[in-house]
Write a structure and sequence with these properties.
The complex is a heterodimer. Chain A is built from no helices and 10 strands. Chain A is mainly beta. The mean pLDDT of chain A is 90. Chain B has strands spanning 4-7, 10-13, 19-25, 31-37, 43-50, 53-57, 64-70, 73-78, 87-94, 107-108, 112-116. The chains are: A mainly beta, B mainly beta. The A-B interface holds A 32, 34, 36, 41-46, 49, 51, 85, 87, 89, 91, 93-102 and B 33, 35, 40-43, 45, 48, 56, 88, 90, 96-97, 102-111, 113.
Chain lengths: 109, 117
Amino acid sequence: RKEVEQDPGPFNVPEGATVAFNCTYSNSASQSFFWYRQDCRKEPKLLMSVYSSGNEDGRFTAQLNRASQYISLLIRDSKLSDSATYLCVPYSGNTPLVFGKGTRLSVIA
Amino acid sequence: DTAVSQTPKYLVTQMGNDKSIKCEQNLGHDTMYWYKQDSKKFLKIMFSYNNKELIINETVPNRFSPKSPDKAHLNLHINSLELGDSAVYFCASSQLGAGWNGDYGYTFGSGTRLTVV
C-alpha cells in the first residue's frame, strides 16, 4: 500500500468555488502532516502544518481524522493563483518526508 | 535574502560528463536533503545529511556523491552522466526531529533542471 494516496485530478473549478482534496495515509504512526503546493516548474512550498485535529489559515482549512487515517484540504473562494499541485505529506519522526504526486488544481476564470 | 539557494538553475550537458550542483541554506537548519523529481513528477529522496553526516542514502547509483563541508552546505556531484539522470534536483533543509513544535516543514531551493543530451 502506498504511503499516501491522493486523487491526482486535475480538478478544474471556476473562480470563487470551494474545492476539497482528500488524502489517505498508511502509517498510523504519522505524527503530523504538511500540505505543500507546487507550481509548475517550481519548488514545493509549505502551505500548512497539521498536528492536531486540523488547522485553518484564511481561505484554507485542513482537517485530520486519525481514526480513518484521512486528511483533507478545503479551499474556499478559489483564486486563479491557487492553480497548482497540492501535496499531502505525513511526518513520522526522523525519516525524510515522502512526497506523492499530489492533486492538480486548475482554477478557471 | 534566499533561504535555500541552489546553483546552477539550469544545467545542460553531454552524456559521460561529470557535473556538480551546489546548495546552501542560511536558516541554521541541521538537516539537508537532495530530492530528484523526474518527468513523472514524483519527488524522491536521494540523500539526507544531519550536521555534515550522511544519515540517509536511498537506492541511488554510486555515480552520485553528496558532500557536506559544513551544515549549511550540501553539494551533489554526479559522475558519468546518463540520459536517465535528466530531472529537476531539489535541495531542502529542515529543523525537524526532537523538539519540533509542529510549525515547520522542509524549505526547498528553487531546483536545478538537469538535461543530459
